[in-house]
Amino acid sequence: MGNAAPVRESFTAFSSECNFLLLGAGIVLRLVVFGNMGYLNNDNHLEVIEYVARWWVPPHADLFHQAYHPPLYYYLAAVLLHLGGVEAVHGLSLALSAGTLVLIALLLLRLPWINRKLRHWCLALAVFHPQFIMFSLFISNDTLAIFLGALIFYQCRRAQVMPSLFNDVLLGLALGLGLLTKAVFLAFLLPLLVFLWITGRQWDFAGRQLVYRLGLFILIAGILGCYKYVESAVIFGNPIISNVDFSDWARHQKPTWIGPRSLLDFDVFKLVKTPIISPTTVHSYPLMTYGSFWYSLIPESSFQSNTSEPLNRLGSLIYLVALCPTILMVIGAARLGKESFTLGYSTMSSEPAQDRAVYQGVVIFILLLNFLLIMAAGWRYDLWSVFQGRLLFPSYVAILLALHAGMQWAAISQLWSRIVRCLMTALLGLFVAYFVVEVSLAIVYPDKPSRGNHMPFKINMHAR
To answer: What confidence tens digit (pLDDT) does each residue in 105-154 have?
Structure first.
């Protein structure tokens, strides 16, 4: 018994050192990718930034391909464009990418129910996940949206531990900034209201006080984040408008829907056989979302190994091995939802257990609404480009917590636990190999960093 405390202290020090090393590796990797990958993807956000930098008013949604987005990112980037040119704008992406990783690492450390041994696996995924890294480094509002998503989850925990009016205001500000960046944050609004209501009830706030705090939260988030939605409603009669409503490019991506099998096609071997987007995968909602989450299914950057045989066989392997964390995430999300419901209605639960139930329940609620928002947009517009895994990245913290819960479930069996760890190690190794290949190609065959529209072909939507 006398040796227990030194052993625990030694393990804690080792755990902290691992987190520090992982965080350092993640920032170094982002620097390497930043220096070798072009700054534009298939969505040209730079033309919106240049317009704002010239006129200092946001363009209407029909003026540019990406002008339908809320304007916060473009104003921040426009200031930097004046101060340091495109390089400074690109530097903002690097700063936000590193900041996102730091927030994720801090939150994983500060959630007391996170298993120390499993924390490293969750952080390692955020450190090495190629799509997560790349979409946080483009000149794009995705970079700010991903950062603000992590910030909201971080501030939720602060507001739960210290439920002061100040922390509620900060959470309202974070959500308002999110709404002023990208429409995906509409999925955050209802869960955060539920979160603040439950937290207020747990701390025995008076009814009038609770209503006041909820009203203040809605007022701050609404006033700060409503601009683009009001503008689009006034000008176009639709608060939620898209670039699809103003051009004919979308007809080349239709029809995605070919009946119920578009929802039920989980045949990952289609992706394994053809790692890049093809007529065999564009009609499957699950395959498009899964493939673009784990690998560059769509050519969208100057990293182009996905279009080259046999280099894209790395993608085939990633699709196969990534089945492990994906299944664990689904199982984990279901377990968190069930646990939150059970503990939330139990009068016998301890206060820490109640806090865990509320936080994890709200986190999974956000992730679910984020996913349903993607599916609803895909159903409405019937376009394959809507089903992109990157649209889940503002909810990345929820994805990591679902993975943690899934790995906890697998740990009930020593055999399953070892299999999961081996597959996770293999996946991380494939991620590193992917970056080694891409960076090597970028050094030998440098591309113009300003080149956009990386799709080398059009998809025959009528082929099967």
So the answer is: 999 999 999 998 899 999 999 999 999 999 999 999 999 999 999 999 99
CA pair distance 97, 102, nearest whole angstrom: 9
Contact assessment for residue 399 and residue 360, using Cβ atoms and an 8 Å cutoff? no
> If residue 105 lies in a helix (H) or strand (E), which one and from where to where?
helix 72-110
The length of the chain is 464
What's the pLDDT score for residue 362? 95
With 0.85 as the threshold, say if the pTM is over it: yes
Nearest to 285 by CA among 382, 368, 392: 382
**For residues 105, 370, 197 and 223, what is the CA-based torsion angle, rounded to 10 degrees?**
100
Residue spans of alpha helices (H) in 266-322: 269-273, 285-294, 313-321
**Dist. CA 398–CA 340, nearest whole Å:** 14
Peptide bond into 310 cis (omega under 30): yes
Reading the block at residue 354, the tokens are 């109640």
Separation between Cα atoms, residue 341 and residue 278, nearest integer Å: 41
Q: Which two tokens stand for residue 237?
A: 């009669």
CA angle 278, 280, 283 (to 5 degrees): 100
User: Which H or E run includes 220?
Assistant: helix 207-225
Distances (CA, A) of 187 to 31, 125, 332: 31, 24, 20
C-beta of residue 344 within 8 angstroms of C-beta of residue 361: yes
